[in-house]
Design brief:
Strand order of the largest sheet: 11-12-13-10-4-14
Largest sheet: 6 strands, mixed
Shape: globular
Order of helices and strands: EHEEHEEHEEEHEEHEEEHEHHEEEEEE
């Protein structure tokens, strides 16, 4: 998380302040980190058991306006884009990852919409311009309602959204789009809507239904429990898709991809590193970013993200390690302090089972 001299404010910034938000700088955005009277653990548990609401309006939302936007998207993203549905894909520069993006391409309307990380906004827009993409920035509010009760709660406001399946989207009003997706591992929705409707209609109804407000800190805990990557930690421009567990997004029929990317699809020996999950039982010192990982005294890699999981009550982490250094079930040691090591086990991710509603 980086400081910036040019702080951008969410459209709902004053609303968050009224509800006791404490703010943090996140790549130039003033973002709610948590809320008074609701600690991070409470937010995480409420999301896992009921529903939590996140404001993710800082994310870069683009409407492509080229007449051939769908064809352009199919050439730019390495993923087979399902027509009319959302897809998680990657923007690549050579074999390295510029950003992970949500892509909605619809051949019937000729439209393409993308959602990218705020931390990568300038790089994403620069790369798209290099690829001759013309776009407008969508300045609507973007809310994420996540948790097992999200469908019931949101369908009481927007009739029919409970019929959507994971990664499906619907325009429920002329300027309101609802998608069944999210980045917590829970069932949930993301809603793009005008500020006035958010303030006057949607937010009051959700808070009346005992939805908990959650900030960036809780969102990071939830995404890590769900085994999901974060740009700048698991994903970088020095990391290829297969090296961070994202090889599945590559369309194997695409022969126009970078040769190093194509090689990864067919040859696992091309990997320089791999992503693994680690779990340390008990109340040991928490696993944290940049701690080194060892097997038999050999330094095999580094932790990219780590927390004490509120759901599992264990220390969990994602790590980037040498590709043949360990496998699921193996024991490793993590250097948590200069003279202190703890034992961890390599485990399959997600750490907490995903609960997406799929067709």
């Amino acid at each position: 998380m980086l400081a910036s001299t040019l702080v951008k404010k969410l459209p709902l910034r004053n609303w968050h302040a009224q509800y006791g938000a404490s703010f943090m700088d996140y790549f130039g955005w003033s973002m709610p980190a948590s809320y008074k009277g609701v600690d991070v653990v409470t937010s995480v548990k409420h999301c896992r058991n009921r529903a939590a609401l996140f404001d993710v309006s800082h994310m870069l939302k683009l409407k492509w306006r080229n007449p051939n936007s769908v064809d352009l998207a199919k050439g730019i993203f390495p993923t087979a884009l399902p027509d009319g549905k959302l897809a998680l894909s990657l923007l690549l520069r050579g074999p390295g990852i510029v950003d992970d993006c949500i892509v909605h391409a619809n051949s019937q309307t000729g439209s393409v919409h993308t959602v990218s990380n705020a931390s990568r906004a300038e790089d994403v827009m620069a790369l798209l311009r290099e690829r001759n993409v013309e776009f407008d920035i969508d300045d609507r509010v973007l809310l994420a309602l996540q948790g097992p009760e999200a469908s019931k709660l949101l369908s009481s406001i927007f009739s029919g959204v409970d019929k959507l399946k994971f990664m499906e989207t619907s325009t429920v009003d002329s300027d309101i789009d609802v998608a069944r997706c999210g980045y917590t591992g829970e069932d949930g929705f993301e809603i793009a809507l005008p500020l006035s409707i958010a303030e006057s209609n949607v937010l009051p109804k959700l808070l009346d239904a005992d939805v908990t407000l959650a900030g960036l800190l809780a969102r990071n805990f939830l995404r890590l429990e769900a085994g999901l990557n974060l740009y700048g930690q698991e994903m970088t421009e020095d990391t290829t898709p297969s090296e961070c567990g994202m090889g599945w997004v590559l369309d194997k029929s695409r022969r126009d991809l970078d040769p190093l990317v194509l090689q990864q699809v067919s040859d696992r020996k091309a990997l320089r590193k791999k992503r693994v999950g680690l779990i340390a039982e008990g109340r040991s010192i928490p696993l944290r970013e940049l701690q080194r990982v060892f097997v038999g005294g050999e330094d095999i890699g580094v932790i990219t993200s780590g927390i004490r999981s509120p759901t599992l009550r264990s220390n969990i982490a994602l790590a980037s390690v040498l590709p043949t250094s360990c496998k699921i079930g193996d024991k490793v040691t993590v250097q948590v302090r200069p003279e202190r090591f703890v034992e961890a086990q390599v485990v399959k991710t997600p750490f907490v089972a995903n609960r997406y509603i799929k067709g």
